[in-house]
Amino acid sequence: MHGIFASRRNTVVAVVIGSIALILTANLGLGGAANSSTRSSGCSRGDLGIEKRRFGVTPDGETVHLYKLSNGHCMQVKIITYGGIIQSLRVPNREGRSRNVVLGFDNLGDYVTNNSPYFGAIIGRYANRIAGGQFTLDGVTYDLPKNNGPNTLHGGPKGFHTKVWKAEEVVHDNSVGLRLHYTSPNGEQGFPGRLRTKVTYTLTEHNSLRMRYRATTNKPTVVNLTNHSYFNLAGEGSGTIYNHKLRLNADHYTPVDPTLIPTGEIAPVEGTPFDFREPKRIGARIRHDHPQILVGRGYDHNYVLNGDSGRLRHAAWVNEPRSGRVLQILTTEPGVQFYSGNFLDGTLVGPSGNVYRMSDGFALETQHYPDSPNQRHFPSTVLRPGGEYRSTTVFRFSVEG
Asked: Of 65, 91, 143, 381, which has the maximum CB count within 10 A?
C-alpha cells in the first residue's frame, strides 16, 4: 500500500548531454520521459551522475522536474517532484541488458488525473487505510476525508502523492541522491499538526536505492509513510507477475474485513495461501478459495515482519526467473503490505504502450499496520512534538542464474 544531492561538479558533462537530448526530443507541455526508457537495451557503464529536466506543469501552475540518478553499474532511477514519484527504475538482467521494472506513466498529465493506483508515489500522511475516516488521539476525534468506501486511504484524496516537493541534490563519493521536502500544514486532510517531512532517495554503486523518511510535528499526530512503487521484474508492460517467486520474512499477517480494514487478529501464515516463508510463485495460490484471498481479490494484506522494528532487516525477496532479476527489500518498519495489483483493470496505459491489467505489477509497501490509530495493540504511529519520525527502506537489485 504504501539523502539527496548537493554539488554537481562531477556531472556537468551528463547534464550537458541530457540538455541536448531534451532539445532533440522537443519535449513540450506536460512533458514526459522518452518511451525508449521502457525498452530493453544494453547499458553503457558510466560514473555516478544526476541530470535534471522539466517534466511539466500542474493545473495549478507549479513546475515539476524530473531527476535522473545513475550509477556505474547500469542502474538508473528517475524521480519527479510531483508526489516524489519513482517514474522509472532501470536495472540489468543476467545478460546485462537494462530495462525499466516499475509501472507508471510517461507524462505528468496522467499522474495528475489517472494515478488512482498511486504508481511510484510517496504516501502520507498515513499509508494504507484508517477505518471510518476517523481516529481519536489524546481525547480529540479527528475526521478525515473518505476516499475508499467508508475509509480513508493513503492520506486522503489530496495526500502526499499529489504534492509538488522541493528538491535538493546530494552527491557523495559512492552515491547520489535526491532529498525532497514538504511541509504539511495543520489540518491538511484532517490530520492535526504541522508536519515537516523529508524523504531522501539515495542510489548507491551496489545497485541499491535507499529511501530515508524523516518527519517532525508541532502537535501530536499520526504518521505512516511509504513508497508505492509497482514492480514487474520482467520489465514494465510484460504481462502478469504470476511467475515471479516471492519470499517474505513473516510468520504472521493481519486478516481484513470486507472493506480491507484489519480485524485486529494477528494470524499465522502457516497452512494458508499467505505463507511465503519459502519462495513460491505469486500466481500459484492467488485464486485460492481462502476467504481472505476472496476478500482482497488476491493479495492485499499486511505482513507482520519477523525481527525487531527499528532495525534494518530483510523483509522480502523476489525473483523473476526469465530475466534473472532479483529484488531484495530491507526495512526498519514493522510490516509490509503485499499487493498483487488486483484492481488494475486495463484502463491505464504505461510508457511501453501496453495497458495495465490485473496483476501486471506488485507492490511491497513497507509500513506500520493499517488502521493502527484505532487498534491499540498494533505498533504505535503517534508522533509528538520534540520527537522525530524515522524510517528507512532499501530496494536492493541483483541477478541470479
From this structure: 91
